[in-house]
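User: Fold this; tokens only.

Assistant: Input:
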Amino acid sequence: MVIAAARQIREGDVVNVGMRLPLLAYALAKMTHARTAMGFFDSGIVRAEPLTHEIVTMCDAANVRGSQWCTDMIDLMNLMQQGFVDVGFLGGAEVDQFGNVNTSYIGDPQKPRVRLPGSGGAADIAQFSGRTVIIMAHEKHRLVREVQYVTTLGYGRDGHERERLGMSGGPSALVTTLGVFTFDNPWHTAQLAHIHPGATLEDIKSATGWDIIMGDAPPTETPWPTTEEVAVLELLDGSGFWTGKR
């Protein structure tokens, strides 16, 4: 999952990295195929050099050490609003077929069954990044036909709201524990592109709250991790804090 997310980062990208798995994905991309990528961290850190230590949060000393700039969050938000960020990473409790993300509540809005932390900077990242990549555990209560609340706009309730609002960008990929979806179709609907090794199409169908659509060609197997990718991931998460490897 981390490696599939890292492959969404291209050479030369400015990346709004975010927390949790994107910390690994960005560092992995930097040390393999996207060596000129630049990382923006919401804590105010700008990093062009690859990490060589395991980190848990973006504020860890290992992330600060060797960075190009340590500033305030508002400075990086200003740069993002000016269009300097190519790709941003998002996560959440729910995502729907049009890439809308819910991090606000589950259940009755007046008396929610679960109250979630809200947007943080996710709405800004989704609005101002050139494209976004969503990372989500693949479970039917998470991949839903329609999110209960649009905290972070993907392509809107019908797939075209972003265009009507005059907004550029939008989700380019949804990376899950079972596969990878893309949105490069006229309807901006999540389209199954890759199935991770060990998973099946039936696994994905049974764990997805919308009808799976595929392009002209059937989905392919996600390319297996390379020896280099595995070695770098071992370096970055040797204890298995993020990947769960023991």
